[in-house]
């Protein structure tokens, strides 16, 4: 009986092994059929989404061209000269004229965290302390953060101190807040520029209007460029640029082209080594070596004024105007 049990056990184990082989073979066939089904589905999906993707890219390109449709075709070719307009004792600050209106008034904002704006009647009143009338002192209801403020059509735009990403549109004449917005995309989490420790969101104005610049997320810290509609204070479009925050001290835009100034943080040199054009008409290869005159330390701010085609800068307490040379960009294809 034991002999017969061993025989039955061997036959049973043999049957189990054969069944296991059949199950494994069946599983391979099932896996192969599943692979064929998924591959066919992927082909159908790719055939379906490729035209949609091309259409989406075409619509995106059309949107950008519509957004940047001003008759502006200049690109920067040289920093021609430097003029020190005035010197103050304050290391950080910003100064400006309205980027749109013909007003001769000059506005000075001292420090990286403050709420006092000094309004001078004209450039002479600003440069000559004895000139009358005396400057008008404007106290804002909120303080600014950094040195990124811009004046656009009579409104002061600034980063609200104590908030990571809130921008304020302020009516200087009425002394009231017109609009607020929260800049998305992780804005305000890190400094925009390595050599500008107080600025977390930079603002700029060019022929196309109002822009915001902030550092992107991640270790690399590439700069993010955002076009803002100034009336309703809302985002129109954003671009991830190849320009990095490491080594940067300031930036500005001319005719929609983004120029970033880099330095070693001390005696310079201060040079533009990264350029980004959302329309793709200007690249770094198109530009000569763009250097700023050597200064004792990094710039607190460099802003372009599209009305008088000059750069306004603040460096180690000096209020500076840089005259620039431009040439025509290549036309859009």
TrEMBL record:
It comes from Erinaceus europaeus. It is found in: Secreted. The keyword Secreted applies. It holds the Pfam family OLF. The gene is OLFML1. This is Olfactomedin-like protein 1 isoform X2. Transmembrane segments: none annotated. InterPro entries: Olfac-like_dom, Olfactomedin-like_domain. Its main location: secreted. Residues 71-328 form the Olfactomedin-like domain.
């Amino acid at each position: 009986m034991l002999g017969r049990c061993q025989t039955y056990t061997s036959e049973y184990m043999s049957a189990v092994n054969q069944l296991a082989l059949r199950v494994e073979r069946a599983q391979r066939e099932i896996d192969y059929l599943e692979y064929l089904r998924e591959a066919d589905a992927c082909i159908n999906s790719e055939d379906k989404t490729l035209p949609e993707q091309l259409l989406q890219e075409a619509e995106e390109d059309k949107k950008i061209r519509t957004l940047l449709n001003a008759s502006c075709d200049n690109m920067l070719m040289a920093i021609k000269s430097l003029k020190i307009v005035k010197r103050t004792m304050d290391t950080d600050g910003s100064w400006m004229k309205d980027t749109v209106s013909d007003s001769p008034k000059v506005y000075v904002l001292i420090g990286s965290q403050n709420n006092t704006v000094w309004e001078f009647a004209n450039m002479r009143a600003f440069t000559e302390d004895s000139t009358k009338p005396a400057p008008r002192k404007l106290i804002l209801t909120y303080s600014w953060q950094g040195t990124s403020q811009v004046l656009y059509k009579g409104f002061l735009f600034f980063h609200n101190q104590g908030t990571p990403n809130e921008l304020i549109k302020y009516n200087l004449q009425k002394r009231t807040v017109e609009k607020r917005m929260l800049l998305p995309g992780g804005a305000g989490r890190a400094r925009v520029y390595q050599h500008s420790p107080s600025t977390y969101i930079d603002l700029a104005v060019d022929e196309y209007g109002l822009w915001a610049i902030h550092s992107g997320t991640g270790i690399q810290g590439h700069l993010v460029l955002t076009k803002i509609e100034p009336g309703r204070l809302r985002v129109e479009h954003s671009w991830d640029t190849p320009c990095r925050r490491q080594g940067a001290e300031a930036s500005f835009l001319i005719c929609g082209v983004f120029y970033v100034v880099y330095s070693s943080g001390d005696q310079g040199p201060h040079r533009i080594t990264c350029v980004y054009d959302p329309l793709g008409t200007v690249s770094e290869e198109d530009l000569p070596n763009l250097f700023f005159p050597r200064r004792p330390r990094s710039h607190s701010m460099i802003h372009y004024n599209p009305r008088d085609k000059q750069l306004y800068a603040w460096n180690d307490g000096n209020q500076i105007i840089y005259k620039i040379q431009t040439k025509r960009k290549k036309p859009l294809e």
